[in-house]
Amino acid sequence: MTDVxxxxxxxxxxxxLRRAGEDFEVIANGVFLMDTRNGESERLLVSVAAxxxxxxxxxLIGGLGVGCSLRAALDHPGVGEIVVVxxxxxxxxxxxxxxxxxxxxDALSDERVIVVEADLVKxxxxxxxxxxxxxxxxxxxxxWTVTDGNAKLYxxxxxxxxAARLRPGGVLGVWSAESVPSFAKRLRARFGAVRELKIPVPxxxxxxxxxxxx
Length: 214
Fold this sequence. Notes:
InterPro entries: SAM-dependent_MTases_sf. Pfam families: Spermine_synth. One of its GO terms (biological process) is polyamine biosynthetic process. Keywords: Polyamine biosynthesis. It comes from Amycolatopsis regifaucium. The chain is α/β, with parallel strands linked by helices. The chain is globular, with a radius of gyration of 16 Å. The longest helix has 12 residues, at 40-51. It has 6 helices and 11 strands. It has helices spanning 40-51, 68-75, 89-96, 120-126, 156-164, 181-190, and strands at 2-10, 13-20, 23-28, 31-35, 57-62, 79-86, 113-117, 131-136, 166-176, 193-199, 207-213. The termini are far apart. The chain has one domain (38-213): Vaccinia Virus protein VP39 (Rossmann fold). The strands form 2 sheets. Strands 7-6-5-8-9-11-10 form a 7-stranded mixed sheet, with helices on both faces. Strands 1-2-3-4 form a 4-stranded antiparallel sheet, with helices on one face. Helix 1 runs parallel beside helix 2 (68-75).
């Protein structure tokens, strides 16, 4: 039994929050985007990135989603301040005061968290802030973006922009629902060291994580 909890006109089209049993799902323009069923790879995205950075990392998380990555970052002893960039006001609301709040233990209320309501691509172009770790999870992968504008992030221009926001020795983490050899090739051409992890999922191809160090 699936219950629709909210339907809104978001910045990238129609957004739907629905409940399926004990879990929640977010649908964007009729395409399944995320849910609360597992989240292992989303949590690993931030925890592995934090492991690769010495000291208390200042972390940027691109995409709030259902809060799995943020919760993992808060629980990691190597993470300090966390900036979350999310362009959809409804997603922020569902996490801050809606039904997703209990999924991650009200993570947005933690004093270490700064939520920025903005399009990540536009925000990266205008900000001068720099981070020890930048974790990118705003799409289903480099070739399966929520909106066409996000595709720029995964091209050479976007990788240069992401690298510019990292401190020396910083780490870029990218989440994908599928393997994308062409993106992995661009990543290795731009960064000195790249690690790829494949995370098994209950059905279908494994999720893929890339970690690149400047």
